Amino acid sequence: MKRTITRLLMAPSVILLLIWMIVPLSMTIYFSTIRFNLLYPGQNNFVGWMNFEFFITDPGFMPAVLNTLILLISVLIITVVLGVALSALIDKPFFGQGIVRVLLISPFFIMPTVNALIWKNMMMNPVYGVFAWISQSLGLEPIDWLSDFPLMSVIIMVSWQWLPFAILVFVTALQSQDTEQKEAAQMDGATGWHIFRYLTIPHLSRPIAVVVMIETIFLLAVFAEIFVSTGGGPGYDSTNLAYLIYNQALLQYDVGVASAGGLFAVILANIVAFFLIRAVGKNLTV
Amino acid sequence: MMTLNQQRKFKTFITGAFAWFIALLLFFPIFWMFITSFKTELQAISVPPSLFFEPTLENFGIVQERSDYLKHAFNSIITSFGSTFIALVIGVPAAYAMAFNPTKKTKDILLWMLSTKMLPAVGVLVPIYILSRDYGLLDSRTGLVIIFTLMNLPIIIWMLFSYFKDLPKEILEAARMDGANPWDEIVKVVLPLSIGGISSTALLSIILCWNEAFWSLNLTASEAAPLTAMIASYSSPEGLFWAKLSAASTLACAPIVIFGWFCQKQLVQGLTFGAVK
Q1: Which residues of A touch B270 (CB under 8 A)?
Q2: CB–CB of B200/A172 below 8 Å?
Q3: ipTM greater than 0.90, yes or no?
Q4: Cα-atom radius of gyration of chain B, to the nearest Å?
Q5: Any chain A CB within 8 A of the CB of B162?
Q6: Which of A275, B33, B72, B250 could form a disulfide with B37 if both were Cys (CB 3.0 to 4.6 A apart)?
Q7: Which of A1, A20, A29, A104 to mutate to test the interface with B (most CBs of B within 10 A)?
């Protein structure tokens, strides 16, 4: 009886997610094995591995894989390290703590397209941007961020978006930290650093695992920021896998190659997930 | 020499000042976008940037006229709130079942659900596009609601699961003793106890939907396009007109930013993901 009810309650979610996973995935697998270009309808013959070969030998392939991983790892490190530091900083009461918290988490509410547009134009524009103005005031040559440091620009934008999320989760977690324990340590002469290192960091290990997990899901699929700001360029310098598939295959209406690329992205995501779950999985409450 | 108390006060002051500095730094781009939206185009690109100017509301009028802001805002509200509501209706029972009647498979099922989020959207864009086209869901709010619902369902279930698991089991036992059936149990006992957790879950889901860009860019055109897609139309040639671009961006973000500010307490208390013991 109990088991039946449990199953009934779970059924809608499980069935919907199964359909959501299996239908598109099997269609993608099928498309990846046929010639399927929307510009040449009716020539959908079986081609085996050709689409995969085509995608993997694309000159943008290796840069895209590397950029995807660099983007993922840099943003993870930036958001976790700064997130822990900042949330520890604002944990103790000070003047205007509430307002500071609101200001710090605000970028999380900004949509990726707007995020990219603000940074691309008003911040990083080499002539009229705020950064250019600061460089000029300091007597330095303005930097053309999007052309000279495209991947770093994207990393800055994405980190700006996700740092507040890390802060949100860590601030939440710090609220439950045992203050008595901290005070006792202070009595025994522990310095602020020691308390941070031996009490706060271990307390945050599970929230860190959660942040890494959720951010990875979104970071592997970064698209809008690149689409709006650098367009993947110059060359392939800021192209990640998601953008490569979009740009090299979908814009050419080549569904076959796009599907092969999509499957490759799925495989990469699973490899990352495998290592991730092994690394942080023991800290997840599942 | 400072006394210990003075020393502590000084330290708090320094920490506070530093925190303020960082917060203002991180908030600056948003502030700048807001300010720029009240400038004329000429003021917007002046170097050095003009801080004192006569604010104009002209840009907002132009944005509404050019891209019908209100229609896109309506689309954003419908899709993010609608999909969040449906996902909760589907997700709450599942999370409840897994939290209160766990089996050996519960962990695997949860991990599998999360793993469906690992499928990069770009990999399944074409199938979803073709299916949407065949079922007449292209450029429709219904289509977006369905996709947003499925997209956030795993995270919603995971968050809810971790809340439900932390609820005191004794209360439920007591309710069961009193002859409550499972439906009563959910509605009269579990929901009131976990309203905080459910609302933070809903908040996160609404924010993620409001800011979702990939599906809304690729599956909608003019009719169902939410604000994320409207903004993208300002990215190319009009990107040169910073004041209008800022006005459009401010309009697109204002609802969710203000909403987020009002709910930040709830968010800060709620985003535990069961990660805090």
Answers
A1: 172
A2: no
A3: no
A4: 24
A5: yes
A6: B250
A7: A20
